[in-house]
Automatic annotation (TrEMBL):
Organism this protein belongs to: Microvirga terricola
Residue ranges occupied by any Glutamyl/glutaminyl-tRNA synthetase class Ib catalytic domain in the UniProt entry: 7-288
Protein name in the entry: tRNA glutamyl-Q(34) synthetase GluQRS
GO terms, molecular function: ligase activity
Signal sequence coordinates: none
Family designation: Belongs to the class-I aminoacyl-tRNA synthetase family.
Region span, Disordered: 266-298
UniProt-listed Enzyme Commission number(s): 6.1.1.-
Pfam families (alphabetical): tRNA-synt_1c
InterPro entries: Glu/Gln-tRNA-synth, Glu/Gln-tRNA-synth_Ib_cat-dom, GluQ/Sye, Rossmann-like_a/b/a_fold
């Protein structure tokens, strides 16, 4: 039987914190217990925020923690053509459209609709207002005119059209710590007309992750609960692109002393800092609920 394939997929836009360490160690722990392989993927599509020194620090921190992963490492910024090819397939199906709206324009449109209807406008699982569909009905002439004016645009999935093409039910499997599997229903519609290709790069997190998991043969996705709802959209993209759906496990997030989620943007204590203060890898592993590093056999 083929060995299960796990992956840890950090973004090199800051130093790793305890939340990343937990996710990486949990992937390694699953891989070990399930007789699987562990891959590392560098998710660096955000060309303005990702930096080579953070990538180097990821390798350094993970090695310090005692982790081993297969080489070569897949770096997303080197595979934009793969994402372009996947996007072309969605385009051929007529289920994407160009969106020229700025965030401010979307926010204004939503305020207006809320004022007119007296009802709160629906939000996506990240808390952002669902796209009100302004650009969905642009004519080919209007799109050509706006493009020619040099206005940057993203590409959105036309959720209703996509669901008409792939009505589902969109079933996928979750697995728990013991490998027990449960079948679940994905609800992609909660994302509305999500951005599939950003203005600045030829992909989005959602498209890149789905393409990469398939190309790398990932069978088991282990990541934080903050990405749990993303699976609803990923399962739809997999159906539209004819890609396999891996099994998913979304783990609890590591919280700080006041119960907030750790985040690079909140300057959460990094692994580098605790290393600098003299912590050992085993202390970090223990603090996160993992057993000490096995001593290498001689
Ligand atoms: N790159 C994402 C992050 O650093 C993880 C994506 C994933 O595991 O699907 O949060």
């Amino acid at each position: 039987m083929a060995r299960p394939v796990f992956r840890f997929a950090p973004s090199p836009n800051g130093r790793l914190h305890f939340g990343h360490a937990y996710s990486a160690l949990l992937n390694a722990d699953f891989a070990e217990r399930f007789g699987g392989r562990l891959l590392l993927r560098i998710e660096d599509i955000d060309l303005t925020r990702c930096r080579p020194e953070f990538e180097a620090a990821i390798y350094d921190d993970l090695t310090w923690l005692g982790l081993n992963w297969e080489r070569p490492v897949r770096r997303q910024s080197e595979h934009f053509d793969d994402y372009r090819a996947a996007f072309a397939k969605l385009k051929e199906q007529g289920i994407v459209y160009s969106c020229f709206c700025s965030r401010k324009e979307i926010a204004d449109a939503v305020v207006l609709r809320e004022a007119t209807t007296g009802q709160p406008w629906p939000r996506d699982p990240d808390g952002a207002p669902l796209y009100p569909g302004t650009c969905r009905t642009l004519s080919a002439g209007e799109v050509a005119h706006l493009s020619a004016s040099g206005r940057p645009h993203s590409w959105r999935i036309d959720m209703a059209a996509a669901l008409a093409l792939a009505p589902g039910p969109h079933l996928f499997k979750r697995f728990d710590k013991n490998g027990e599997e449960t079948t679940c229903h994905a609800d992609p519609a909660r994302w509305g007309d999500a951005i599939i290709v950003r203005k600045d790069v030829p992909t989005s997190y959602h498209l890149a992750v789905v393409v990469d998991d398939a190309l790398q043969g990932v069978t088991h996705v282990v990541r934080g609960k903050d990405l749990e709802a993303a699976a609803d959209l990923h399962v739809l993209l997999q159906a539209l692109l004819g890609l396999p759906t891996p099994l998913y496990h979304h783990h609890d997030l590591v919280l700080d002393q006041v119960g907030d989620k750790l985040a690079k943007s909140r300057q959460s204590e990094s692994l580098a800092e605790v290393r600098g203060q003299g912590a050992t890898p085993d202390e970090v592993r223990r603090r996160l609920g993992f057993s000490p590093q096995p001593t290498p056999s001689t």
